[in-house]
Amino acid sequence: MKELQTDVVVIGAGTAGLSAYRNAKQFTQNVLMIESGPYGTTCARVGCMPSKLLIAAAEAAHSIEMAPAFGVHSSKPVIDGKAVMARVKSERDRFVGFVVEAVDEIPSEDKIRGYAQFLDANRVQIDDHTIITAKRFVIATGSRPSYPGVFNNFGDRLIINDDVFDWDDLPESVAVFGPGVIGLEIGQALHRLGVKVKLFGVGGAIGPLTDPVVKDYANTVFAEEFYVDTDSNVSDMKKVGNKAELTYTNKQGVKHTEQFDYVLAATGRVPNTDKLGLENTGIDLDERGVPTADAHTMQCGDSNIFIAGDASNMIPLLHEASDQGTIAGQNAGRYPHVRAGLRRAKIAAVFSDPQIAMVGESFKEISQRLGSCDCFEIGEVSFENQGRSRVMLKNKGHMRVYAEHGTGLFLGAEFIGPQAEHIAHLLAWAVQNKMTVPQMLDMPFYHPVIEEGLRTALRDLNAKLKFGPDIINHCMECGPGA
């Protein structure tokens, strides 16, 4: 057994791990990075990038379908599934290649291949070949898809989102379980590419939304396009021949038995911390076996162990993983001199159509914190009659914005609508800069733009906070259809 000594060990070479490695190097050259799987990051290989490639193809097909509404007529689009998936995989591999190039630039003596397991708080064993003694550690092992055991009844007809991006062709039918970010994005994209899709969920949840008004609107608008039942009743799940068969009760109470080429399980992810031997370290673990860490320092208790990215079970997004990796790497590098790092305003987007976005505190978080004292107010707007949205025939959406009574401090927003990903950035900057609603309304708004809908919601909120007059339905200074 080979034995090594170093200052910092980073376990995992994904987004968080690479960031942690680079930042730890600012304080010591003695940093080792351990990786057991392929290089390339979840985002580039099976996450945000390949899913957006599939969505882009779906949007191209959908724009042709919608063209007659503008008086533009053409033949019905023909979907070449093999060509769609060839581009998805080719561009995916290109993105992965960029990450692999970055990993290749790391000195070979700093990289060790294999599975790491803690022997104690200062030693890890890599497979059966190496024991490393280190002063500090960063856990950046990412996460993996999770689904109920009963789904195994579908045998090889069961897939996860990782599998979709290795298809050579599009199937005829897919049942999607889980109307969260992954299920909603992939489900709608496949539907628009001609695949028969049925999307099932439980409890009415859709995307990451917590605001009941926005959630209800989202459920309605997606169900108008394809079969979406976020509070479904599904039974008799099994494989029959080369098909997945299930029985479900539809919204009218009628039972149906149907077969699909595949069942896509998009029911969540779990941190990859269960096989690290963390019980040997003495650090506190939650009920799922995930280390409890300070969100500002990424330190596990007062130990020499830090955690970052999806493994932390905090916010499973690339930019969050990068920020957490920066903080964890810097603190591991300079330990025991631990410092709080920059945590940016929360921002999340779902690249469905219409898009979904959440910024700052969610409705659920604000309600739990301020609801009992009635200390916050809600402004809202519908995008169904918003000028620029109607021009583009993208006039589906509803926005709710939240602010604190007395101070007018803008707290956050949940919304569904056109170009939500862009509006979300404006609102995230406002949250991070601790702007009040009156200050936000002092900012410039061009005409005609979708952002005028945001201004309408802010004016509604401003009036309810008693900082301005009641909103005028037909505001001439706003321009028509604002």
UniProtKB/TrEMBL annotation:
<feature type="disulfide bond" description="Redox-active">
    <location>
        <begin position="43"/>
        <end position="48"/>
    </location>
</feature>
<dbReference type="Pfam" id="PF02852">
    <property type="entry name" value="Pyr_redox_dim"/>
</dbReference>
<keyword id="KW-0547">Nucleotide-binding</keyword>
<dbReference type="InterPro" id="IPR004099">
    <property type="entry name" value="Pyr_nucl-diS_OxRdtase_dimer"/>
</dbReference>
<feature type="domain" description="FAD/NAD(P)-binding">
    <location>
        <begin position="7"/>
        <end position="325"/>
    </location>
</feature>
<keyword id="KW-0274">FAD</keyword>
<dbReference type="InterPro" id="IPR023753">
    <property type="entry name" value="FAD/NAD-binding_dom"/>
</dbReference>
<comment type="similarity">
    <text>Belongs to the class-I pyridine nucleotide-disulfide oxidoreductase family.</text>
</comment>
<feature type="binding site">
    <location>
        <begin position="141"/>
        <end position="143"/>
    </location>
    <ligand>
        <name>FAD</name>
    </ligand>
</feature>
<feature type="binding site">
    <location>
        <begin position="178"/>
        <end position="185"/>
    </location>
    <ligand>
        <name>NAD(+)</name>
    </ligand>
</feature>
<keyword id="KW-0520">NAD</keyword>
<dbReference type="InterPro" id="IPR016156">
    <property type="entry name" value="FAD/NAD-linked_Rdtase_dimer_sf"/>
</dbReference>
<feature type="binding site">
    <location>
        <position position="52"/>
    </location>
    <ligand>
        <name>FAD</name>
    </ligand>
</feature>
<dbReference type="GO" id="GO:0050660">
    <property type="term" value="F:flavin adenine dinucleotide binding"/>
</dbReference>
<feature type="binding site">
    <location>
        <position position="268"/>
    </location>
    <ligand>
        <name>NAD(+)</name>
    </ligand>
</feature>
<dbReference type="InterPro" id="IPR001100">
    <property type="entry name" value="Pyr_nuc-diS_OxRdtase"/>
</dbReference>
<feature type="active site" description="Proton acceptor">
    <location>
        <position position="447"/>
    </location>
</feature>
<keyword id="KW-0560">Oxidoreductase</keyword>
<dbReference type="Pfam" id="PF07992">
    <property type="entry name" value="Pyr_redox_2"/>
</dbReference>
<feature type="domain" description="Pyridine nucleotide-disulphide oxidoreductase dimerisation">
    <location>
        <begin position="349"/>
        <end position="457"/>
    </location>
</feature>
<protein>
    <submittedName>
        <fullName>Dihydrolipoyl dehydrogenase</fullName>
        <ecNumber>1.8.1.4</ecNumber>
    </submittedName>
</protein>
<dbReference type="InterPro" id="IPR036188">
    <property type="entry name" value="FAD/NAD-bd_sf"/>
</dbReference>
<feature type="binding site">
    <location>
        <position position="310"/>
    </location>
    <ligand>
        <name>FAD</name>
    </ligand>
</feature>
<keyword id="KW-0285">Flavoprotein</keyword>
<dbReference type="GO" id="GO:0003955">
    <property type="term" value="F:NAD(P)H dehydrogenase (quinone) activity"/>
</dbReference>
<dbReference type="GO" id="GO:0004148">
    <property type="term" value="F:dihydrolipoyl dehydrogenase (NADH) activity"/>
</dbReference>
